[in-house]
Every structure is written in structure tokens, then in C-alpha cells.
Design brief:
Oligomer: single chain
Strand order of the largest sheet: 1-10
Structural class: alpha+beta
Distance between the termini: 55 Å
Number of helices: 12
CATH architecture: Orthogonal Bundle
């Protein structure tokens, strides 16, 4: 049976269920001025930011972590801060926004809402940075993102002797040198109110009843270049932006393992940071999530710009994760939800980085050498 929007809405227990009514779908703002390279906000790679710009970003994220949530406690007991509002919405939509048609657009708008909260509520002065995977894939712990300095996203986790090696199908990746709470940098010892979902847990057709329960723990990291290096080579990036179709693009970005030791670039970014980021539900608990998905959005934007007329609103896939349960194909009129972050939106309203109220571009050049 193919599900209608009503069925999809009910089986995933969206935060708007029951007495928690949210706004109806509305029309996204239309750009009053044409968005061009010259007037678009520029999203830069983390290493291209000045030390002051990096600190402004981490300060703003920590500000959200200290603001009260807007999500009612009854709807998501694990929500303890404004930052957790975003994690809760991602968790609650997990079965509708991965390995499917809405994946790219939903996460694009999710990043935009995160940027808006940082700017409006915490005085962030910049634009969301991204993580250029190939530059740091061979040595994540020494990268400017994860070296544990005051201008990083925090470092590796404390060494956890009980943490097992990573398994993907029949292949076992050697574990990293962390596994515990983040031990240094701006996000040392940060906590989340939500439980960790194990990567080996099969994604169900409906959300587990305890998905949004209060189960506090620290955010962990286990930086692993053995995972990131093969999945984030320059040839993978080239394959993404030269993909002949949206189906081919998504197949590279989020497809099956190409071989036993090579994760797709989306999975490699999550798995290489550790158990917290491997969690398909609560991975936004780690601020690295937003830079990883910034690169995903960057790749999609580059792909779209190669043929804007036919690619900007190209979609492929159904509206449930791995089409479980079977559902309709995604269309530009399919409505996606953002909990208390925003009103529901049609996919067509949130697919264009340079239209419909968005106006940003990426400072990106394929093959550029990483900074010294």
C-alpha cells in the first residue's frame, strides 16, 4: 500500500500530533532582489575562517545550548535547550528524511533554520561554515576542525577502553583513539538530553516509543581517519558534482557501500566522528553535524548550478526512509515538517539556495589545495 500524507504523518508520530498543533503549510518568502554571486551570502570552509570568526560560531552555538527550549517538554522530554530543539526535530523526522527524496531539501532548510537561530537569538555575525572532506580525510585529529584548540569544534573523545570496533556489514573498521566524552576545545564535555541509538539497530517503520525521552549523556567522539579517508577522496567529490542525474548524485552521496572498506561520503562523515555522529536520529547533538551537512549541501548546490534549469527542482525517491513502509514518490508539492522550528514547507519552497527566501553560495573550487 502506498501511503498518503495523512498516513505518513500518523505513523511517524510527528511533534504536531495530538494537542500540539503546528502552523499549516504556508508560502515561502519570495526573493525581492535577484540573488547573484555578488550579493549572495558566502559559506566558507572552516579553515578559511579567521580565528575570530571560528570563535564567533562556537560562541553562538554554545549560546543556543544555554537558551531554554521552545519545544514543549510534554512533546519531547529530552529537550533541555534551544540547541536540543533542533536535535528533537531531526530525531522526530528521521524516518522521513534519509535515503529518500526529501533528504537533500529537508536538511538544506534545517541548516538555514539553524543559521537563523544563531543569528537572531545569539548574535552570530557570520554564515554557516562547512567541512571540506578531502582536505582533512587522512588526519582528522590534526585538522583545524578537530584539533581540540580554542578555534576548533573541539577535539577527540577520551579513550574508552570498552568501545568496540566499527562494523559495517561483513567489514570491521579499526576503532579510533577516543570513544568517550569530548575532552578538549569549545565543546568539551557537552551533553545531550537524548539517548544514543546504536548504528546496528535496524531502522523501523515507526519511531520507537522512547525516541524523545530524557536520557542525558555526554556527546562522544572517536575520530577515525581509516573511515574518512577512502570515503572522502577528491575523486568521490568529483563523482558527486559530475553525476548525470539526481538519482546518480544521491546514489553516490548516500548509496550502498562501494566496497567493504569504503562508505559513501554521507556515511563516512558521520562514522568517522564516532558513535554520536553515527546515530541517525540524534547526530545533530554534535555541532560537527552542521559542518558535515554543509558540505553535503555544498555538493548538491554545485551539482544544481551546472544546469539550474533542469536540476534545481530535480527529485528522486519516495518519502520514507528506504521506502519503509512503501510510500509515494517525492514531488515539489510534498509537505515536510520542522516541529517548533518552522511551519511545514513544500519541498519546492526549500530546494533553491538562491531563491524562495534563500540567497547564499559556497566558497568552493574543486581540486583547490588545502591551506598550509
Amino acid at each position: 500500500m502506498r501511503l498518503s500524507p495523512t498516513h505518513i504523518y500518523s505513523i511517524t508520530a510527528l511533534l504536531s500530533a495530538g494537542s500540539y498543533a503546528l502552523p499549516s503549510p504556508s508560502t515561502y518568502p519570495i526573493n525581492t532582489v535577484q540573488c547573484t554571486d555578488s550579493n549572495a551570502a558566502v559559506r566558507k570552509e572552516w579553515s578559511a575562517l579567521t580565528p575570530a570568526e571560528r570563535i564567533d560560531f562556537t560562541r553562538s552555538v554554545k549560546c543556543l545550548m544555554n537558551l531554554p527550549p521552545k519545544t514543549p517538554k510534554e512533546a519531547a522530554p529530552g529537550t533541555t535547550s534551544r540547541y536540543d530543539d533542533f536535535t528533537a526535530v531531526h530525531m522526530n523526522n528521521t524516518l522521513l528524511i534519509h535515503r529518500n527524496g526529501p533528504f537533500l531539501a529537508w536538511h538544506r532548510h534545517f541548516l538555514r533554520l539553524f543559521q537563523k537561530a544563531l543569528t537572531d537569538e545569539c548574535g552570530f555575525n557570520g554564515t554557516l561554515p562547512y567541512w571540506n572532506w578531502p582536505w582533512w580525510s587522512d588526519d582528522l585529529p590534526s585538522s583545524p576542525l578537530f584539533d581540540g584548540s580554542a578555534t576548533s569544534l573541539g577535539g577527540d573523545g577520551y579513550y574508552n577502553t570498552s568501545m568496540p570496533a566499527l562494523r559495517n556489514g561483513n567489514y570491521t573498521f579499526p576503532r579510533g583513539h577516543g570513544g568517550g566524552c569530548i575532552k578538549a576545545g569549545p565543546f568539551a564535555n557537552i551533553t545531550t538530553g537524548f539517548r544514543n541509538f546504536k548504528v546496528e539497530d535496524a531502522l523501523p517503520a515507526t519511531l520507537p516509543p522512547d525516541t524523545l525521552d530524557y536520557a542525558p549523556h555526554c556527546v562522544t567522539r572517536d575520530l577515525n581517519s581509516v573511515v574518512s579517508d577512502p570515503g572522502h577522496q577528491p575523486d568521490v567529490v568529483h563523482e558527486l558534482i559530475t553525476a548525470p542525474s539526481i538519482r546518480a548524485f544521491q546514489g553516490v552521496m548516500d548509496g550502498s557501500v562501494r566496497n567493504t572498506a569504503h562508505l559513501s561520503p554521507h556515511s563516512a562523515g558521520h562514522w568517522s566522528v564516532g558513535i554520536g555522529m553515527q546515530d541517525q536520529y540524534a547526530s545533530p547533538s554534535d555541532p560537527a553535524f552542521y559542518l558535515h551537512h554543509g558540505m553535503i549541501d555544498n555538493m548538491w548546490a554545485q551539482w544544481q548550478l551546472r544546469d539550474p534549469e533542469t536540476r534545481t527542482f530535480a527529485l528522486d525517491g519516495t518519502v520514507t526512509t528506504l521506502n519503509n513502509p512503501p510510500s509515494q514518490n517525492a514531488t515539489v508539492d510534498w509537505v515536510v515538517h520542522f516541529g517548533w522550528l518552522d511551519a511545514p514547507r513544500r519541498l519546492g519552497e526549500i530546494m533553491d539556495a538562491r531563491g524562495g527566501g534563500s540567497c547564499y553560495r559556497y566558497e568552493y573550487e574543486e581540486g583547490a589545495e588545502k591551506p598550509c
